[in-house]
Amino acid sequence: MPSTPLQGIRVISFGTGAVIPDFGKIMGELGADVIKMESRENMDFMRTIGADPDNIGGFNESNRSKRSFGVNLRKDKGRELVRRLIKMTDIIGENFRGGVMKSHGLDYENVRQVKPDIIYVSSQGFGSGGPFADYQAYGPMLSAASGLLSLWAHPTDPYPVGANVPLPDHMASKQAVFAAIAALDYRRRTGKGQFIDMSQVEVAAGLIGEACLDYTINKRVQKPAGNRSPYSAPNSCYRCKGNDQWCAISVSTDAEWQAFCRAIGNPPWTKEAKFGDVLGRVRNVEELDKLVEEWTLQHEPGDVMNTLQKAGVAAGVCLRPAETLTDPQLQWLNAFVEVDHPVAGKRIYPNVPFKMSEAKLPPSRPAPILGQHTVEICRELLKMSDSEINRLKDEGVLEVSKR
Length: 403
Description:
37% helix; 3-stranded antiparallel beta sheet; single chain; 7-stranded mixed beta sheet; elongated
């Protein structure tokens, strides 16, 4: 039977919010043993956005496939237990504000004295140095601070619109995975660990590299363009038959334009010279979009997609989140997985979005209840007796699940 990709790798997560929790989730879903350090005195803030800290949708999504170790880092004995665990750990991830880990004696310079080949992933909103290093940061704010939000709107919007999705957080978590796996390979070849400093605002700024390049070369400041493209037309979401139904269509080349025209029956306007090439269609996109929408409004969005796709034109129904769960392609891909959480019950979550021919991915496990695995980890890894565990519980060093 093939092994899991990260079998035998242990990760300690001091994550809060999204970046490092999501990083740890991905590592866990790839087979690593991920231990989340937490306590009731200083909970992951995602546990605090509802009445029950063990039944928060966002937390339970970003913390799947981990074990929870309840430990009070404000106590010397708690920090000593963590240092003992670090000796048998490969990777540490943290995204606290600057100085927090150092205050506990768990910053990279201290940790490497305990485990010289440790891989230490540190991710703050603005990084660990520079004039903004100690500033508070959250994903939606970083969309603005990186320049991303300036483009995330329609031309007529009175202000940058953006979205509720904390894109910098979720992009940064994936970059952290790439960096950690690269560091594992480097350590395999050299025997050396390393410190990985990842600024979330830098990750977000990288998403608008084309706009930065445009300014560097052309001194042109890009404006919000909504769904439109300077290289393709038609290129937008078009209303279809029904209540608030839409289909996205993108025509990039003249050959695709000819295929599009044939697919919709070659109405007379498609033969007008001003639409004859890409440049003409982009220049006349306002008129073109209205004409395209006259056709799409006559058809269901699924029919629009299938008609155009059969002709070789990129088109896709604009789905709402609930509709993705029944989308035939996403179902075929097994894009979602049902996980039974001991408190939240059975819920649908995104699955690992790829398959590996020579490795088996472990089943996704529910996010842990706070302190759920404290005793298990003490016995299994720290080789502690029950009397010692109970004594540290009484002293407020260890925390276990109250459920």
